[in-house]
Inverse folding.
């Protein structure tokens, strides 16, 4: 009897392990495709990004490459009434975001989609934490689609062909700090 229970538990454990490894593998393939790994924005930087966004109830915030959704979840908690959509291409990370949503009062609409293929024209604020190359590739799309006045708040990475209206240096313990760049379109 005990032997059967142990065998079943071991089987379940192995099944979970295989599923987890498959998830990691699939999400790594997506990361390779996007060439941007999931690196979460630290809490202090998130607070600055949200403060600079000057969000008001009813506004729509997008996170392009939303990771586990932490930036927009925090934005929704800080400014009740804000709506938020997060686009995330890596399956494992997107699934993790849905899991975190389930345990939070704020539930941004997490979509497993490539943000380059989405219409961004409804956004009031756009958050990014991408890479220097993807920022340059993204600029023409933002210039074409964003409403006049829309703010883009970028963690660390800047556009080469557009000047930020503001740059805030956020000090971080142990590794100096980083810039939050504020753009207005
Ligand atoms: C550095 S992480 C930032 C995560 C989150 N925004 C944050 O600040 O914590 C960048 C994320 O963008 C995602 N990503 C990159 N290119 C993408 C694309 N074209 N469409 C959707 N997600 C993308 C990656 O999978 C990765 O999880």
């Amino acid at each position: 009897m005990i032997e059967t229970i142990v065998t079943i538990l071991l089987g379940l454990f192995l099944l979970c392990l295989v599923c987890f490894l498959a998830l990691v593998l699939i999400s790594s393939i997506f990361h390779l495709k996007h060439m941007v790994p999931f690196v979460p924005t630290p809490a202090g930087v998130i607070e600055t990004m949200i403060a600079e966004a000057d969000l008001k109830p009813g506004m729509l915030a997008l996170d392009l490459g939303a990771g586990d959704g932490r930036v927009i979840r925090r934005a929704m908690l800080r400014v009740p009434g804000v709506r938020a959509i997060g686009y995330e291409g890596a399956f494992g990370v997107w699934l993790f975001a849905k899991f975190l949503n389930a345990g939070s009062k704020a539930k941004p609409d997490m979509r497993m989609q490539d943000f380059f293929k989405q219409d961004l024209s409804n956004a009031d604020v756009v958050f990014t934490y991408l890479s220097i190359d993807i920022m340059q590739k993204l600029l023409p799309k933002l210039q074409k689609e964003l409403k006049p006045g829309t703010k883009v708040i970028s963690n660390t990475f800047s556009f080469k062909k557009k000047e930020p209206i503001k740059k805030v240096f956020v000090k971080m313990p142990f590794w100096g700090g980083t810039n939050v760049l504020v753009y207005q379109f």
Notes: DSSP finds five helices and seven strands in the chain.
